[in-house]
Design goal:
Nucleotidyltransferase, domain 5, homodimer, 328 residues, five-stranded mixed β-sheet, 14 helices
Chain lengths: 328, 328
């Protein structure tokens, strides 16, 4: 029996489960759909979690699971953390999985559920002390002090967050229609957005937008063309990227203030598709942080968030062993 | 047999059909759900149209329909106007309705379909020459010259329009979360929005917002509390109303310029829940128009839009009679 831990990263689009040896070597991966309890039903969340876990361990019949850390989107509340914990217990209780648990595995102590922001922070900073700004389809800023005090800023959903890829896409569509109406000057975005959407005139965008199956991530995908137009010098595109960067910077600044990081060294981890792929946004935020919150060092995430879940699982497992967790 | 015309107002939420004598006296009304072809399927649109028409004429078995004017949301395109025309023909062809048609009724000449903006303009200004700004759940500005040249600005949907009740509600929710995060000062909106949504803390708004059954009109309904907070002097609420007013004014100004109304007398009709109920928005727009586009006289709509449909139907019927429309 090879001792291992599971790290789970649950998001609004996909869920990843990784199996790691106690040395930190990843020996199995599984992937499934969304497990955000705000977006999917309990049954859906359980099915997708089970799919990712089973796929990750499928090639290893001789595993002994010591600890599980699940970093899940939508678990900012105790209720949703408890729900995910319960679902993982139910999955582990399946006859096909029960034999894989370590003899010391106690579901009430060896499963740790936290928001996906926490595992992303750990994946980037190596420790929980710091700030993480994630901007993909959605956006959120989360920070934690050395004493474990957490602060969340934003992350309230597409409708409200102004630092997200969705917002970049929405503003791009708005810029196209403003230009079409004569409310704004012509912009390179018009042709680029129409090409991306496969349309031949701006007024058809209204039908495109109202398609019932249009997902938030399809709107967020337009962030790519905003980036291209901005690189070509388009003013409307540059304004959008500046606006979104400034909103993210404001959220980071508020988090830093609430955590008293203005006077304490800390790392800021930038993650998510927007911050990874759009240099203009990343640079603007980093330079504002350098100028105004000099105690903070900005880095770009270069490990997958699930690696943060594995790191937490390994550390918590060591703690459990040290504390002599009673056998079941 | 009493000769009559039908006026239909089709919107995103409800559809109204009114039967009028040739003297303009309304003798029957019917109401049903949405008939916006961008929001509902062809079958749904037909069912709702039929319901409103049948209800309107149900107490009058001795009618003779001379003309129908349907002012419908979502018919900015020829394709959707043709669709509505076809559906009305199909309804009139029902055995229960066929006997109600005037012997001169020729479907290809006696049915007129136009956007709901046109009937609202006519209901307010009495003529088609002028500008109408509608701000309810959505927003749109439409103007027409004395020569029948039409110009539309905005009206691209909740996601994009910045002069709507939906946008006021969205900005109110955003203001509450910004204040909760510490990104903005406290605002009266927090308690008012929570009371309206039946919640006890701001962080629960995220679940409220993500409810799959949350309609755009529920978000637009928050415009009421923004108005109340603004009246009490709340800065965040006032900023929201100013922002939305300025967006509407910009659209009006662009329409006036494109129609060359800066130098020609014209009426601006203000309509929809936001412009009817929120004095601060109405006044700000009216005073900006007075200051910058002095040739335009601003009025508030005080007849239902369906009355504009009746007026158009009556006028077009007279034209048809004059032109001696051939009998079927």
């Amino acid at each position: 029996m090879k001792s291992c831990v599971l790290g789970i990263e649950g998001g609004g689009t996909k869920t990843i489960c990784a199996v790691s040896t106690l040395d930190g070597e990843v020996i199995g991966m599984g992937q499934s759909g969304t497990t955000n309890p705000n977006l999917a039903s309990e049954t859906e969340v359980k099915d997708e979690l089970q799919k990712a876990i089973c796929e990750a361990i499928s090639n290893h019949r001789e595993l002994s699971i010591e600890f599980i850390c699940a970093g899940m989107a939508g678990t900012g509340t105790d209720a949703n953390q408890t729900l995910i914990n319960k679902l993982i217990r139910q999955i582990l209780d399946l006859s096909s999985l029960r034999s894989l648990l370590s003899s010391r595995f106690n579901p009430s102590r060896n499963i740790y559920v936290c928001p996906d922001t926490v595992i992303t922070l750990v994946a980037g900073a190596g420790v929980r002390h710091g700030i993480v700004a994630i901007s993909g389809t959605g956006s959120i800023v989360y920070g934690e002090t050395i004493h474990g005090q957490g602060v969340r800023v934003g992350g309230w959903g597409n409708l409200l967050d102004e630092g997200s890829g969705y917002e970049i896409g929405r503003l791009a569509l708005q810029a196209v229609m403003k230009s079409y109406d004569g409310r704004a000057n012509p912009t390179l975005l018009t042709q680029m957005v129409l090409d991306t959407c496969g349309l031949d005139s701006s007024d058809k965008l209204t039908y495109y937008i109202h398609r019932k199956d249009l997902s938030p991530s399809s709107i967020a995908d337009l962030a790519r063309v905003v980036n291209s137009a901005a690189i070509e010098g388009d003013i409307a595109a540059r304004n959008i990227l500046e606006k979104v960067s400034d909103e993210l910077y404001d959220s980071i600044s508020v988090a830093a203030k609430r955590l008293d990081f203005k006077n304490n060294d800390a790392t800021l981890v930038l993650s998510g598709g927007v911050l990874t792929n759009i240099e203009m946004v990343r640079d603007r935020i980093a330079s504002k942080v350098r100028a105004n919150i000099s105690a903070i060092k900005t880095i770009e995430l270069c490990r997958e968030p699930v690696k943060g879940a594995i790191q937490i699982a390994l550390e918590k497992n060591v703690d459990c062993v040290k504390q002599g967790v009673p056998r079941k």
